[in-house]
């Protein structure tokens, strides 16, 4: 695997106040890494969902347990790893929140959101917890055209 351009690591105590701490840390990383707004929105949304899931469902808000978060920037993508110290779960067993019987349930949308905004999502059950790896491809910036635009891009007016 390629070496990251930049990376940041942080450990959070599993208490509800850590959500605000996570948010402040992540927004500081936006400035430090100079992440474009559209890319940041996707990275933050997926990471925040994974973090809250790890905090609440994985670690059950047990202050003795930690959530570890890594953000790495590569040439063509960002990767976020979120690891809890809980008992783990089977991602394919999580009910689809779009099904009629699940529409009014208070939880269950986080994994769907992560899968929708990320380019790649992988789950790993580890000895002491669960790890989710989220990959977001870089999309901002001008794209080179494979062929010239007719009339030099001019429009009739």
TrEMBL record:
Mention any Pfam family matching this sequence.
HATPase_c_2
Alphabetically list the UniProt keywords. Kinase, Serine/threonine-protein kinase, Transferase
Cross-referenced SUPFAM superfamilies, in alphabetical order?
ATPase domain of HSP90 chaperone/DNA topoisomerase II/histidine kinase
Keyword Transferase assigned: yes
Which part of the chain is the Histidine kinase/HSP90-like ATPase domain? 17-134
Molecular function in Gene Ontology: protein serine/threonine kinase activity
Q: What protein am I looking at?
A: Serine/threonine-protein kinase RsbW
Q: Which organism is it from?
A: Candidatus Thermokryptus mobilis
